Amino acid sequence: MLKTKKFKLFTTFGKEPMFFYIIHLFVLHALALLYLMVKPYIPLLNTTNFEINLAVVYVVWIGVVLMLYPVTKKWMAWRKDKPGFFWKLF
Questions:
Q1: Among 25, 28, 71, which residue's Cα sits nearest to residue 52?
Q2: CA neighbor of 66 nearest in space, from 34, 22, 24, 3
Q3: pTM of this prediction?
Q4: Cα 8–19–88 angle (5° rounding)?
Q5: φ and ψ of 89, to 5 deg
C-alpha cells in the first residue's frame, strides 16, 4: 500500500466511502436548492432551463470533495474510537 502524503486524500475517502457518499448527496442537493433559490435574482443565471457549464460543475465537485475531506477525516477518527456494529455499516 502506498503510504505517502500524496495518497492520504484518497485513502481517507477510501476508508469511509459510505459516509462520504451519503454526506455528499446532502451537500450537493443543498447547493442545487440554493442555486434554484438564487437563480431568479441574478440576471446572468436567469435562463429557461437548468443549464450549468461543465467547468462550473467540475469546480463545484472539487470544492465539495475538498470541503468534505476534514469532515470525513473526523468521522473516521470518531468511528475508530466507537466500536460497535452500527458504526461499521457507515
A1: 28
A2: 24
A3: 0.69
A4: 100
A5: -70, -25
Per the listing, cell 466511502 goes with 17
The low-confidence residues of the chain, meaning pLDDT below 70, are 1-13, 43-50, 84-90
Provide the pLDDT for residue 46.
Answer: 63
* Cβ(75)–Cβ(21) below 8 Å: no
What radius of gyration do the chain's Cα atoms show? 17
Burial group, residue 33, by CB count within 10 angstroms (0-12, 13-18, 19+): exposed
C-alpha cell at 83: 466500536
